[in-house]
Amino acid sequence: FMAVFFMAGVPLKWVAALAAAGAAGVVGLYFSFSHMRDRLSRFGSDDAGATYQIDRASEAIRAGGLVGRGVGEGVMKRSVPDLHTDFIYSVGAEEFGLVLSLIMIGLFGFIVLRGMQKAMRLRDPFEQTAAAGLFILIGLQASINIAVNLSLVPTKGMTLPFISYGGSSMVAMGLTMGLALALTRKRPGAYEPGASLPRRRMLG
Distance between CA 90 and CA 48 in Å, rounded? Predict the structure, then answer.
């Protein structure tokens, strides 16, 4: 939402106010729900039992090395909980190594950047922001999942788009990508040479 608001031309002071409200909401949730406090506390804890999932995922990624152990040869996946959903990236990194991991990240980056390029050339402002927001959504979800596997952020229970197992995740990502492609597909008059997102404007 914040990215779409920004691209739509909402004044920076409004964006800052929304960001401050969001930060206040996060703080309020932290003190209101014990499971959120526990998850953040475990993330910064030195207790091995508190970070079991992250530790096993990190071991799997390290064990993969440059080219991995080979297809089906990974052993850490036997001890990584939710390996088929939240931690599928670590399984792939162990079996296929750093090379495939970078290729996977590069593919997500290509999808987002190519989608944003197509969105910025659309003539209609609504289609511009809608398409850009959908591609950003895919990129953010992939980034958060990979960051969790790399122990950069606390576990979020967020799947890796189009790769993690799960019917609901696949349907949701399919709808997201389908809508994005529908907005950016070639249509007579939809594109304007040299067009870009609307310039920032002051509302009111």
Answer: 18
* Lookup result for tokens 């993690």: 164
Residue 106, burial from CB neighbour count under 10 angstroms (0-12, 13-18, 19+): exposed
Band (pLDDT 50/70/90 cuts) for residue 144 is: very high
pTM, full prediction = 0.77
Tokens of 5: 């608001």
What would the pLDDT profile of 128-140 be if each residue is shown by its tens digit? 999 999 999 999 9
List, in sequence order, the alpha helices (H) in the chain: 2-7, 12-32, 34-43, 52-64, 88-120, 125-149, 167-184
Distance CA 172, CA 151 (A): 25
Instruction: Name 131's Cβ contacts closer than 8 Å, sequence gap at least 6.
Output: 115, 118, 119, 122, 180, 183, 184
